[in-house]
Backbone:
DNA sequence: GTATTAAGGATAGTGATTGTCCTTAGTATA
DNA sequence: TATACTAAGGACAATCACTATCCTTAATAC
């Protein structure tokens, strides 16, 4: 079980979109080039983000994408769920129904204990993702990346917005 | 992204193995029949659990599996990691390396901020799984399932141990 | 009108999950 | 000792989700 690689792409793209000047848009082409990933496929992830209302796109030359909200109002969970979906990572196939000791007049009791525990863990994962915002990420990156690289990247983005 | 169905099987099997009388073993055949899943494939999950030291098997007639430790010393995490592996659910392909503004003399700084956040969420998920033990599950099930079904199941298991 | 863009449908290629079959070796019982 | 039963595990094939590419359509700026 592993998250799709689009998750990594989406997170990085949102991080980069946070550097786009106000009122401007950054096209898919630039995002794909910056990260060295296929433009066509990255487009699918961006479409998912757009549908989820995390980013918004506009057409034409000068078109592209920008964040739909301020970085402080976008969480990792928003991005992950846009690409990966909101469904729980644990799927229950109700194998308890096969229990030979279960009378056929099954009163379909509430969801079983196993599923409840797994769903609780899933919720803990999502809660953790929800606790980090895009603005927090920008701050972490600012501490990691040398200022000159950061400035150059911002310039690179601005030139294509 | 979704957990493999063997996770559900493994959890249920461990739950059932907790009902095996002391010194006895329950064979794969019985576990598969009880849950209505293919015996051959379930066997793979049980082998993984065995290798992880969660359960232990023995050969011959009267052979089968039993828990390797007391239910209070087996957590959901033990079972999930035995089947699903210990690797993080987030894989980083280092796409930041493609950044055109990054000088080639990359000093491979520490793992990036994005990965750190994702790994932290992964850790929260595992921590939640770790907090529930097999003995807790038995208690939850005892509250959910009618006593007569519970007794009949225990009888069913004992007859095949 | 032309160039550029997002949106999205259609369709392969790839790889992991799922499932089956078979062999090998250890164990209990008669 | 012979037999029946078991776990362990290797070798596949089938299925399905993920990855990737290509193409069409519609909106926008110039
Ligand atoms: S017992 Fe729980 S996890 Fe198992 S099949 Fe039933 S609902 Fe699903
Ligand atoms: S920035 Fe982090 S998540 Fe992105 S490629 Fe680099 S290490 Fe991986």
Residues:
């Amino acid at each position: 079980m592993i998250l799709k690689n689009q998750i990594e792409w989406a997170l990085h793209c949102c991080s980069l979109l946070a550097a786009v000047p106000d009122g401007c848009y950054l096209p898919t082409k630039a995002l794909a080039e910056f990260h060295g990933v296929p433009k066509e496929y990255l487009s699918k992830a961006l479409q998912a983000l757009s549908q989820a209302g995390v980013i918004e796109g506009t057409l034409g030359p000068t078109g592209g994408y920008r964040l739909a909200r301020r970085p402080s109002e976008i969480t990792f969970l928003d991005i992950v769920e846009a690409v990966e979906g909101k469904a729980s990572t644990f799927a229950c196939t109700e194998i308890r129904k096969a229990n030979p000791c279960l009378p056929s007049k099954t009163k379909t009791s509430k969801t079983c204990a196993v599923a409840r525990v797994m769903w609780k863990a899933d919720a803990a994962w999502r809660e953790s993702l929800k606790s980090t915002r895009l603005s927090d990420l920008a701050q972490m990156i600012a501490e990691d990346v040398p200022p000159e690289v950061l400035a150059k990247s911002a310039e690179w983005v601005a030139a294509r917005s």
